[in-house]
Predict the 3D structure of the following.
Amino acid sequence: MRNESIMTVQTGESVGFSGEERQDVFPSSITMFVILGLAFMTVIKYQFGRNILEALLSSFNFRQSLRMFEERRESDRQASFLTNILFVLITGIFLSVALPFFGVESLWGSFTLSILFFSAVTGLLYLLKALIWHVMGIVFMAQAFSKMYIFNMFLYNCNIGLMVFPLVAIVPFVSGAIAPYIIYCILFVYVSMYLIKQWRIFQIIHTLNVSVLYFILYLCTFEILPLLLLAKGCKVLWEFNLFI
């Protein structure tokens, strides 16, 4: 689908991740997704500013997160819902914009479809993960752990969305010489928050007096294995040219 109006970012020497001179073309419609994200940010800031500040502090303060989990105010739920939508949208934009810098074309040749696809997949994966943890908590009578895990999973998603939104929003509008460094910064935030979340899960397990072996089993079963399966699935789909 090449009927979208486009904006061109002309890059100079030593550009992107390949170090070659190139020209990156982004659809002007991507601006609408950025504006939508900005609208979410505006509502979140003015309606739930205090809740978001507490959520940010909870990412690095275990006691603060326990207090938020125990209270679970209605305003916290609303703020979490909006910020998780922002996280899903921002992740979709980021993946769609970052792919060209790795030499991969947009899915089906359309940035708009690519953003919608990655956003939908991200949202569905996290909803499925929350559902699985909820069922596992009931089956193995570990509802306290499953509820705390789900709470912290969405908590970190909220904070990632808030942290990377300004960076993701400017990637399509800066020169190719600068964009790769911004993408590196965004990746650093994603990876850092992921590692911090794993430490948080370890703290939860320790607080509930669960064996460390369960933490290792958790990492292998619910973190590493799904990533490997997702990577393998994407490779197979790509080999069949379903995204071209």
